[in-house]
Amino acid sequence: MKIFDRQQKAESLRTVSSGCNPLTLELPSLVENWSESLEEFDLSSSEIHGSIRNTIGDLTSLSKLSLWDNNLTGPIPGTLGRLPKIQELYLHDKLQGPIPISLCQVRCIGNLFLSGNRISGSIPSFFGNVTYFENSSIRQQSVVIKHTSGVMQS
């Protein structure tokens, strides 16, 4: 499927939502031709594979990124910390490595779901920098940390 690889610049694109559709494609390079006005990107349960590229951090208007229940591998990109408007981050899949410390730059993330990944290292103490958390679930091997509603305290 080549719909996501078109060379046209989409300057007013705000939402891409194709969740629960069997796209069976590699996660496209998101920023090369897509608008910086993109606010929501949802390809959850779409049978996509590959890794999340660092260019994801260039989508500075992104408030929701939902890529759960696919076949994504590789690290959680540190460039996610460059998304000042991100409020919902759903990345529970097959990602591996540490949780990027750069996520401490995100202040008001309402929903953060990283469970199901192969998280290594310690869970950063960046939660003290987040001013608002609604729901979170982070699984680190056999440890599951869950939080629901309110201000997260470190």
Rg measurement, Å: 15 Å
Tally of strands: 11
How far the N terminus sits from the C terminus, by CA atoms, comes to 44 Å
Going by CATH, the homologous superfamily would be Ribonuclease Inhibitor
The CATH topology, please? Leucine-rich repeat, LRR (right-handed beta-alpha superhelix)
What spatial order of strands do you see in the largest sheet? Answer: 1-2-4-6-8-10-11
- Number of helix segments? 0
Strand content: 15-25%
Describe, in short, the structure shown.
By secondary structure, the protein is mainly beta.
Report on this model:
With 154 residues, the chain is mainly β. The chain has a single domain (3-148), classed as Leucine-rich repeat, LRR (right-handed beta-alpha superhelix). It contains no helices and eleven strands. It has strands spanning 15-17, 40-42, 49-50, 64-66, 71-72, 88-90, 96-97, 111-113, 118-119, 135-140, 143-148. The strands form three sheets. The chain has a seven-stranded mixed beta sheet with strand order 1-2-4-6-8-10-11, with no helix packed on it. A two-stranded parallel ribbon has the order 3-5. Strand 10 (135-140) and strand 11 form a beta hairpin. The termini are far apart.
